[in-house]
Design a protein that fits this description.
300 residues, mainly alpha, Glutaredoxin, 2 domains, 4 strands, 4% strand
């Protein structure tokens, strides 16, 4: 067992045991992640306990839950890079969020499992959600929209919004730490995602437009307002959340970060691109689903 996993076991609560004791699901999230937004959305009206962490501070709690017990609870979904499922060769990503411990001892390892588990309690249908759509959201739209959001947030002119987002709800020590480490954090992620390569960034944008166009054909051919029928279902919400970083709906993540994302949108290089994604069938569908279903939530 690695040192960091031992540290997680020594310092972090056992959320599986806590779920059993309280009879409440225990959800761990980075609250502005679009993967987490899907999980938070399906659990919005379900009694549960939510643990929100900024990037970095989530590592020990997630390791404790995913690999600190008697078995590994690692997802093979939610890719970091377009075209690849999450670390299949290594058996998954042990620090990925969301992850949710249930009172019966099970651990739901990604947003799909969480959504599937609480589908009925949320009153959603899974009509229209096939493996092809799941795969496109997992391997292409999800990671590409996230990379695009990083590309925008890492613009020097938007550094104050990145700081505001990452430090939301944190204490003085972390805010001070991130004040000094933010440039290095941005550089590392930029290099890891190759966002300093103009060709890679253009490929991300082109791929999103192509995938939006492909799904737009499906949406425009629907005989009903939503993929699931007369009202939004899991397919609609999954599509909306995975597209959200490229569309920036007002109620993304319940509207908690609207002021921050409004400032991102107003950047002169960003606004035309976001408007371009919004002015597609997928963009309009995303805005409609958020407006129809996601109630503003200002505190967690």
């Amino acid at each position: 067992m690695s040192f960091i996993v031992r540290l997680a076991k020594l310092t972090q609560p056992d959320l599986v045991a806590r779920a059993g004791a309280t009879k409440l699901p225990q959800l761990v999230v980075i609250p502005y992640s679009h993967y987490c937004d899907l999980a938070m959305w399906v659990l919005k009206d379900v009694p549960h306990v939510e643990y929100s962490f900024p990037p970095g501070l989530h590592v020990l709690p997630v390791l404790r839950l995913r690999v600190g017990g008697s078995k590994k609870n690692v997802s093979k979904s939610s890719a970091m890079f377009s075209g690849k499922k999450a670390a299949h060769a290594a058996g998954g990503t042990p620090t990925a969020v969301p992850v949710c411990a249930l009172p019966d001892g099970r651990v739901l390892v990604d947003s799909w499992q969480i959504a599937d588990e609480f589908l009925q309690q949320a009153g959603w249908s899974d009509d229209g959600l096939d493996e092809q759509l799941r795969d496109m959201l997992d391997r292409k739209i999800g990671p590409n929209s996230r990379a695009l959001a990083y590309y925008y947030l890492f613009k020097p002119e938007l550094s104050s919004q990145l700081y505001r987002l990452v430090t939301d709800g944190t204490g003085f020590v972390f805010r001070t730490f991130f004040w000094f480490s933010q440039p290095g954090f941005a550089r590392r992620l930029t290099k890891m995602l190759k966002l300093d390569d103009a060709k890679v960034v253009q490929q991300i944008k082109d791929s999103l437009h192509a995938d939006f166009a492909q799904l737009g054909t499906l949406l425009e051919a629907l005989p009903t307002p939503f993929i699931a029928g007369q009202k939004p279902g899991l397919a609609d919400v999954a599509l909306a959340t995975m597209a959200a970083p490229a569309v920036l709906p007002d109620l993304y993540c319940g509207g908690r970060y609207k002021e921050c994302f409004d400032q991102v949108y107003l950047h002169p290089d960003v606004r035309p691109e976001i408007d371009g994604y919004r002015n597609t069938a997928v963009g309009r569908h995303t805005l409609l689903v958020y407006k129809a279903m996601r109630l503003a939530k200002t505190s967690q």
